[in-house]
Records
---
Amino acid sequence: MTKVRDIDARGTQHCETTALGVLLRHEGLDLSEPMLFGLGSGLSFIYWDSKNMGFPFLGGRVKPFELTRNLATRLRLELLVEETTSPRRAWENAAAAVAAGQPVGLQLDSYYLEYFASKVHFGGHVVAMYGYDDHDAYLVDTDQQGGAVSTSLTSLARARAARGPMTAKHRSFTLTAPKSLPSPQGQIIPAITACADAFLNPPIANLGHRGIEKAGKLVRTWLQRTENPQRDLPRAALLMEKAGTGGALFRNLYRDFLAECTQLLDSSHLRTGHRLYAEAASLWTEVAALITEAGESGDAQCLARAGIVLCDLSRIEREAMQALNCLGS
């Protein structure tokens, strides 16, 4: 068996920040999961629907791997990314990093991983690999999926070769910290203001605070949007609360990031943003509960109430990001 020594195989709530935590702890940098998420400017919103989708999707973070790139830039980490169309070369890239004593991040489709209980295609899933033998790969995934886990090399190859929405071409990556690491505290304000600016000025109406407002209008039609509301509405709510989001569509993570920042920086704008995101997090959980109830009962009034809360959320998050954007003044 080939294995990275002294690995801290700790699973957390979200897949990409779990993998980042493994890679960075091995480099001697131990940051909380909310801090990783916040320094990577991870929070966002998208209302995603198209003709080839069975049901709309509400997303609460930036697109896959953007968080990793943001974090590497902020902390001046050396990010080495390998992509290839060759399964053989893909395995050689990942195995070489582990053999050299470095854990490696892999982006793949979680559907093919044998330890996943819920078989849903998601091509933006990220894990950290820290070992392998002739039959299995040893990975770190979220705490929900078991933390330190293993899957067969065959299943891993299928997961990495998958093509579809959010997939990458056998992407693997490593992170190396510089000898003189910049203070994470010094990167808090740039990370927050970059996130706020993107949220406040989305290029299309499906994103940011405009996307939440749009969701508030369209969620009322969801019972007519599907032939199986008992399946599709509770599943949509489950993805908001349980599918590696940390709860409340990543708002719990961002709330906790802002709370940690208030202990490091004295700012009324920061305290306002934290207070409003604490309110927003509880309201997102309420929205998920209303969507679940609508699917189980068929009661359109639940979706009408969810729409009202979403419109409130659009305003609350806009005000929060406006306050946070003032940190750059």
---
Amino acid sequence: MPIDTTAVSGEIVCVTGAGGFIASWLVKLLLEKGYTVRGTVRNPDDQKNAHLRNLEGAKERLSLFSADLLDFESLQAAIMGCHGIFHTASPVTDDPDKVEQAIIGTKNVMTAAAEANVRRVVFTSSIGTVYMNPNRSPDTVVDESCWSDLEFCKNTKNWYCYAKTKAEQAAWEVAKEKGIDLVVVNPMLVLGPMLQEGVNASVVHIMKYLTGSAKTYVNAVQGYVDVKDVAKAHLLVYETPSASGRYICVESMLHRGELVEILANLFPQYPLPTKCSDEVNPRKKPYKYTVEKLKSLGMEFTPIKQCIYETVKSLQEKGHLPLPTSQIQH
């Protein structure tokens, strides 16, 4: 079935941090659907943004703007005249000094959105703003009403979750103050095939087990979701008039032991760890969560095994992972 592009032809949207892992797929999806896209990047001529120019429809409907989240005027130039904004740019860091940047950057985007009178802003947040709470009972189902405990994030030096939480809170504050229609997507760890050349932080999570640099796996659980699904979720909440509030976005939770087992079954040629670094404590259990809110909009998720398979294939194709000898043609 051809995609119905009648509704969006002529609609202009801005994607901040357009060269990123999630953002690149989002730009691809938006172009496929007929949107005119303005992407903000640090330097439009940088080779690391070349993949965006090669996307279908990019020649006709993609323009890259040089913008810095801390430079309000550069954001203003990209956002003025847009119907919608996808704010995906954020420092992925555990550096406490970057916290302020994430907050200021978000406030700048929201303020520019208000000035441009956009229809809706979709903000890429994280599960890190939702689940970090030491007082939550194991029986509590984590849903969109849950917020991470800032003091706990600070005390455990989890600056990434702290920064994301502060930034999301800032987005809601400005939205309320300036009457902006804001919808937030909260994905868990994002995997899947890469459009960009460089390896992003979340894909390294899998790569370290395949290169042999991780000799053991930790006693921890993690939720995973496919990057294409995260991009799809952004578009879904943007295009559904009734969408509001926050949306948790995850396919399934795995213990790190289950993750390496899936990798070993799919790619037995690699030196995967077989031992847990913690042989004393019982195996960590996943917390309960719900994605009913996103599913109620019609969201369907890619099975996690397929996502893991495509992630590794992508690492091989881009030359980040050596091909196992059995795959090399003699």
---
Amino acid sequence: MSLASKDDRKVAVDVAAWMFNIVTSVGIIMVNKALMATYGFTFATTLTGLHFAATTLMTLILKWLGYIQSSSLPASDLMKFVLFANFSIVGMNVSLMWNSVGFYQIAKLSMIPVSCFLEVVLDRVQYSRDTKLSILVVLLGVGICTVTDVSVNAKGFIAAFIAVWSTSLQQYFVHFLQRKHSIGSFDLLGHTAPPQAVSLLLVGPFMDYWLTDKRIDTYHYTYTSVMFVVLSCAIAIGTNLSQFICIGRFTAVSFQVLGHMKTILVLMLGFLFFGKEGLNLHVVVGMMVAIVGMIWYGHASSQPGGKERRPSPTNNKPEEQVELVKLDEQDETV
């Protein structure tokens, strides 16, 4: 296979992975919004546990069909990942409950610089000036679109801090564990989904009761609300899988930056289906600025020197340096 055809195939797969993630992520947001706002199913943590239970079932089917190969993941790495992932889910739910929408959006935006910090410190990644500027443009555009009222209190700030760092670490670990243990997205999801499902289904009902003063066992289930829960779980399978595929092929920072396209799409769909009273000039301008920044980031980070690992310290053995170069050449990151 020629180099050009390999590059074309990589681009096609990359685009397909992003589109898969965008469609499933936007879809699940819209379904969950209808489920919670229209049918009063406000048990977000338990619902996430059901999402991972459905994902676990999917991984078992894929393993039976031969798409997931037997692989090992050290218990220590698995526990770290599940801990970060669960703190991320609970932290984001609590942050949304305790903070204003404006501060919640600021917290979500701050995941980009935190993810950059983790890559610089842990992976020795170096960004070009254009890549840094494009990230700032994305932050500015999304901030203009989404940040309105900003109010915060001590417990809300602590919840947001935990949510931001745990989410950034969870997304960093998706890419790190795939690279470290040479396992694919399906394999990693097969390891992580079952313990996440069990832990969230055990903790979820209590966490949801603490946040909403409502018990999931007293909820009035109807045929339509149950169908929405089933639909949410079905879409979540694609969302979880596409997240692992995208971060595995790219990095957590790229996933965060380009992932804000989902925020723009959710805003557009919200205006389309739920009314246009929030659509004004500064929101439209913010969308345009954010889209320009995302396009710029995709171009800048793909250029030579746009985003690359720095050489390891000179005290490494020559064999280790050669191995690092080989790893860098094999990594398909944006």
---
Amino acid sequence: MVSLVVATTTDPASIGPASALLSMPGWHPGPSLQGNMSSFVNKEVRLLKHDNSIVREDHLDKRWEAATGELVHEVIFLSKHTAASNRPALTIHPIGVPHLRESDVSPAGGKPGWAAPPNPRIGPWLKLLKTIAQAHDLTPEFEVTLEATHHGPEINSPTMFVEIGSTEEYWKRQDAAQAIALLVWEGLGLGGGDAVGDWSRNNGKNKILLGLGGGHYVPRHMDVILKDTVWVGHLLSGYSLLMEDPGQSKARENPGEVGGTWKEAIKVSYETSKAAFPGGDVLAHIDQKSFKGWQRNVIMSFLAEQNIKVGKPGDFC
């Protein structure tokens, strides 16, 4: 079982950390994939470089397995982050577009109605990234944050994106690239220490946070995750819980009347979070203030119908 780290040469925030990582000891050339993607090997880690859009190269895990016979345990994509604020940031997030209808066109890769299993390292790596950023004097200039589940590429292995934002000035920053490289180096145990965020060594902490509601940077869920090392599943912001308002009276009488893709998004995100954490207990954590009263009611009703438990902040510690 190998960990696949993926970078693209077309993105300075992707190839910069990849180059910094490859400058560390122990790497040697690996097999090429389909003749045009180079790889590098270090212990049980494979770094794959390609020249295409990071969100458009689907199923790299299965393609690697078919080419090499090695089973892929997880995938970590290195990428740039963009934001309207242009604020410098180091971000981590799961991927998927479970809120899109089958007829929709996904603007940034992936398949409508799909979500990849979230990489179990997301929560522990967020804390490690904050520690590294502080030690390298990147904070408070750079915000260290989670993002909600969004974009592609389509893939079936436990996956996360690690990103540098939010403009070209910061995508090219060598100190940020070094911090991301160090995150991968330490997080995967390449430096000789224990890997960080290994679900099989959860020490009895088996509650996983499935975030529902809030903005793109999921602040209410972040508050819980940063208080203690919390396992993190999918994080669905309000824009991924699309509801068609049938009128408050109808919503109160019959939550099934509330159309939109919100139910499908919750189901897919819950199921793939369960798959990523075998034997774990996935609990929905709801950003109460981000919903109207009728929305909270129908979400709670649907969660009960689906036998999805709801957790309070203290339940995850």
